[in-house]
Structures are given as C-alpha cells and as structure tokens.
C-alpha cells in the first residue's frame, strides 16, 4: 500500500491516512457568517473521498478580523449549531475535521471605514492601507477571542482546532519581523513575537484539556532575513512540542508565484530540516500533486501531506489517484482566488455558468 494511505495517529487523533485537505475558503458561506447547506455538501464530498483529515476554511474569531463577505464565523455562540451540522456530516462520511480559526490582521476588511489592526503599521502585501498598531490590552482581548472560538469549536464537535499563523495574517504578522516592528513584550525577540500564539495555545489547553488536538499553520519562510527566520522556526517548533501541539503545518509567504512556476513540494527542503531538528509532527503544504510527490515528501521524514487547490478542482482527487489517475489536474494558476466572483465557477477546469 502507498505510504500516504497508511493509518496514522497524531496525539490522540486517529486518522485513516496521511492526506490532509488544507484550509481553503470557499465562496458558499451564508452572508450572516453561518455555514450553508452548500458548504455541508462540499465537505461531505471531501469526506467521502479518502481524505484522512479535513481542515476547515478559516473562520473569524472577531468581525474585526474578517477577510471576506462569505467567510464563516465562530465569534459568537450563535454560530455553533451551523458548524455542528458540517462536523456531523463529515463524521458520518467517515473522516475527521478540525476548525481553522483566524484573525486576518492587516488583511482584514475595513469595519465602518476604520483601518484594520496589526502588530505594527505595515500594510498587507500588495495593499496601501496602513493598519493601526494594536495596544497591549487589545492584544489581550484578541487572545481571549481566539480561546473562546476554540471552545466553541469543541462544542460544535470538531476533532481539533488549527491556529492560522501563516500567510501574513495577524498571528503570522506577529511572528515575522517584516511585519512586526514592536519593541514591547510582543516584538523584537522570537520569544516575544511568538508570545501571542503561545498565550492562545496555553489558554486553549487550559480550557479544552491537554487531550484536545491543537494544530498550528506557519509560514516556513519570510521575505525578510530567511536564515534568521529558520532559527525562529526551530524555536517555534520546540515551543509547540513543549505546549503539546499535535502537529505544525508549514506553508510559505510565496506559494502562489512558486505554483505558477510549475514547481512541486515548494517547502520540502526547509521543512524536512526542521523536522530532523525537532521531533514534532510536520504537515507539508504547497505543490503536492501526485502519489509520486507524496512519496518524496514522506521519504524526507515529513509526517502528513496537505493539499488545497487540487481539491477545489477535483474534490474526489484522492479517489481518482487511488483509481490510477497519475496526478492532479490543477495547474496552480491560482485563478481560484477570484474566478468564482468573475465567472461563477471555482476552477478553470469547471464548466462556465451562463
Ligand atoms: C481559494 C483559496 C483559499 C484558501 N483559503 C485558506 C484558508 O482559509 N486558510 C489557510 O490557511 N490557507 C488557505 N489557502 C492556502 C492553502 O491552504 C494552501 O496553503 C496553499 O494553497 C498551498 O497549497 P496547494 O499548493 O496544495 O494549493 C487558500 C488557498 C486558496 C487557493
Ligand atoms: S483555478 Fe487553477 S489553481 Fe485553482 S484549482 Fe483550478 S487549476 Fe488549480
């Protein structure tokens, strides 16, 4: 049997294989923040098709950290019921699902004409909107909002949570010196830059118990001093191990241009180096497109394989690969970021709607 299809255990979470659907926002959420019937159907198809672990689309922990109109919310108890329906459907279809919780920092939508908030007044990549620097009491409030969101996730039945600390959103902005220019207890050293995430994880363990699986997703690289950032990641991995984090998913700040170049397994070398240095399960995401890619990744010591765009194109991709399809159709063009709004279809390989 292919190694990717072997059963695996992460802390106390038993998974039927090593294949993960990486968090992926879809355009189907209800405008009030609840999970829609269309989303439940989408997750049912994913769950029926041999994915070991599904990571949900990112749900916002406060309206101030919301990134898109159709994004799901987990910022209030009123959202728990609609999430529970999604979770129950995934479980009935034989898979597991964890909730990704996020605050999009400088990338967040403006509320009432106010600028978004961030660790420092550094704009989101490609934007000229200067965010407002968070005060320490505001940071403490955000920590509580993350913890409360995690408690709701457990109440909804999710098998765990993932903190979104990647892609230049709030927690990743704290982590990365390109975006974090603070000189207080949340800036400067890596101890301080990871502190907000650490405090959230500690709060989650306190409220949810040590056996509830907590995952995080981080960038494996930076547009700044990447050698120093490597050492930062070693610190983060060691700290996560100490805190009892189930696994770290490694993405990167530049997965879209790397994909368009036709590359595969973008972050493998960096992540296998970290995995060798620190014994905490690693999930690699970015450019994994076939069983051949998966073998290369697993042979390098990585524990789990995570895939996003190919499941937009082919939600039943794993079933297809098992049946003999050689690789995903997805070309990593990244048009799925805006295609639905323009053409009413999610992928260039889907039929155009009139
Ligand atoms: C349309 C779209 C939505 C995404 N939404 C999320 C998200 O909610 N949270 C997240 O961490 N990453 C998100 N990502 C990034 C993916 O999880 C993944 O890290 C990235 O696409 C690289 O993996 P891939 O090469 O398998 O697509 C999204 C990507 C796309 C294309
Ligand atoms: S639009 Fe492009 S990147 Fe997105 S799923 Fe389709 S082929 Fe892949």
Automatic annotation (TrEMBL):
<dbReference type="InterPro" id="IPR051799">
    <property type="entry name" value="NADH_flavin_oxidoreductase"/>
</dbReference>
<keyword id="KW-0285">Flavoprotein</keyword>
<keyword id="KW-0560">Oxidoreductase</keyword>
<dbReference type="InterPro" id="IPR013785">
    <property type="entry name" value="Aldolase_TIM"/>
</dbReference>
<feature type="domain" description="NADH:flavin oxidoreductase/NADH oxidase N-terminal">
    <location>
        <begin position="8"/>
        <end position="325"/>
    </location>
</feature>
<dbReference type="InterPro" id="IPR001155">
    <property type="entry name" value="OxRdtase_FMN_N"/>
</dbReference>
<dbReference type="Pfam" id="PF00724">
    <property type="entry name" value="Oxidored_FMN"/>
</dbReference>
<protein>
    <submittedName>
        <fullName>2,4-dienoyl-CoA reductase-like NADH-dependent reductase (Old Yellow Enzyme family)</fullName>
    </submittedName>
</protein>
